[in-house]
Amino acid sequence: MNRTHLVLLLSVIGLTGCARRAANTSTADAAAHTPAPSASDRGNAAKPTPGDDPEQALAALSATPIYFPLDSSLLPPEATDELARIAQALRQRGLAKVTVAGHTCELGTTEYNLALGQRRAASVRAYLVNLGVEPGRISVISYGEERPADVNAPEKNRRAEFSFRLAEQAHAGEL
Questions:
Q1: How many CB atoms lie within 10 A of CB 169?
Q2: CB within 10 Å: which end of the chain, N or C, has fewer?
Q3: pTM for the whole structure
Q4: CB 164, CB 92: distance < 8 Å
Q5: Angle, to 10 degrees, between the axis of helix 110-130 and the axis of helix 79-92?
């Protein structure tokens, strides 16, 4: 599989999912109810398993978007299961990195929406770090209102999406 196909596959995976609604909760409250990984899990986080095929490891990663309430960057309670699954998958795949993209609906100014999208992505990142994912493996970006998932359903635009890549791909882009 060439890089173009891989990027396309990951883009499609990142854009799938269905809307969820729930009451607000804070990242700290949600993190308090999720067990932290053991020291042995954290010690093995960045070590690939011998014989791992990097492309297969990356292809196995997928995630549904995390949907947020209006004007909020607090993680909804139902997001914790998905984030725990993502954290476990990342800890098992030491070559994988993730970018969390924060999005908003069209309400608010461009500057406000970019800041809110950044806070949403940072909230997801903080939760993943709390679950034992190394901070250097998680990037955040905000698109604000610029990349709506559905122009007719604002609640689907208030989200954080995930895109996965191999560590080698990240280094190639930095050269």
A1: 16
A2: C
A3: 0.65
A4: no
A5: 60
